[in-house]
Amino acid sequence: xxxxxxxxxxxxxxxxxxxxxxxxxxxxxxxxxxxxxxxxxxxxxxxxxxxxxxxxxxxxxxxxxxxxxxxxxxxxxxxxxxxxxxxxxxxxxxxxxxxxxxxxxxxxxxxxxxxxxxxxxxxxxxxxxxxxxxxxxxxxxxxxxxxxxxxxxxxxxxxxxxxxxxxxxxxxxxxxxxxxxxxxxxxxxxxxxxxxxxxxxxxxxxxxxxxxxxxxxxxxxxxxxxxxxxxxxxxxxxxxxxxxxxxxxxxxxxxxxxxxxxxxxxxxxxxxxxxxxxxxxxxxxx
Amino acid sequence: xxxxxxxxxxxxxxxxxxxxxxxxxxxxxxxxxxxxxxxxxxxxxxxxxxxxxxxxxxxxxxxxxxxxxxxxxxxxxxxxxxxxxxxxxxxxxxxxxxxxxxxxxxxxxxxxxxxxxxxxxxxxxxxxxxxxxxxxxxxxxxxxxxxxxxxxxxxxxx
Lengths: 286, 158
Fold this sequence. Notes:
The structure holds 2 protein chains of 2 kinds. Chain A is of the alpha+beta class. Chain A folds into 3 domains: about 5-55, Uridine Diphospho-n-acetylenolpyruvylglucosamine Reductase, domain 2 (2-Layer Sandwich); about 65-170, Uridine Diphospho-n-acetylenolpyruvylglucosamine Reductase, domain 3 (2-Layer Sandwich); about 180-285, Enolase-like, domain 1, CATH 3.30.390.50. Chain A has helices at about 15-25, 35-40, 80-85, 85-90, 90-100, 105-110, 110-120, 125-130, 150, 225-235, 245-250, 265-285, and strands at about 5-10, 30, 50-55, 65, 70-75, 135-140, 145-150, 155, 160, 165-175, 180-185, 195-205, 210-215, 225. Chain B has helices at about 25-30, 85-95, 105-115, 120-130, 140-155, and strands spanning about 5-10, 10-15, 50, 55-60, 70-75. Classes of the chains: A alpha+beta, B alpha+beta. Chains A and B meet through helix 2 and helix 6 of A and strand 4 and helix 3 of B. Chain B: Pathway: Alkaloid degradation; nicotine degradation.
């Protein structure tokens, strides 16, 4: 299948990209790795007038280690994220989830920022961004704007980016010692989207859960924090004696899971409970 | 219309392309490289996998303009002086294909996998080929072939 016609621009700097995007109007799209956008164009589900290809904007690429956070540039590929020693040391949940994205060929082209800006609730990184309380950095001709992950995912495929803004990357907080992480994903085939996924970060002390962050993939039009689970799991024993299972029973509360070819809403709710339990066990390393 | 310069299987080409032209259409329709098949057209099957600057990509999910200034290797660029690449030979010898449609993508994905892991376990081979679907063989012979190809490539490079 062949996409509909569009104009194409390939700026070599971020300033140039912002200028081109500003001139191109509201129907322009930023092309990152293209692993979500090109399939949509091929199926003619999207008709951008202009694609602004930021593939050669070097400023958008790379990973920087700061005192209290790691900055991951938007055009850093999944392949690069998985292999980054800094990411693996300070934000392993990002590496764990990224390693489950599609397949090696897609991870060679697909990018960290592209996955977030696409705002697909079935994507793996949006729920991770939410669980880790990442700060997303968007740039426009007016300067930088910091958007907390909790405000970034507005609706299905709708990020809180204004026309003329480009996502330049995300600040991933370093959570420090005592935290355990896991990303649990259920999908029909290796390279398929998550039917449901669970991103979990748990801080333990003396065998007890002190604090937990749990976010769900594909359980609504946006990724959702399982706040009921987070409250229920606080203070319980981090073991296999049932209290983690009991907390996980509330995983689907407040979620609005979609029904599609792969699963009906009630089945997704069931998966959310089972996978949350598994994710909590793994994050507690028990 | 943008002009791109791209090296494909060792030969440089300079071509004007429509921005919407997919790399796989460029390879097949413009250059006649029909060894790269279109399988699913939905980014699922991996049949159209080629190496772009040494890394496996699905050529149905890359625009030809994005391949500007890059080097592409297709299945047609693997043999040299009439001799098959060791991985091609291994697929033949282990009967790792029936209809053959997925084979070019499988072989290129396998060669890419070995760059990171020259002596992969069966599990690593299966994970490395996750994006490539075969509807005939059930994968057992493919895994065997990749292992054999890895062994032969190791011998030739040592």
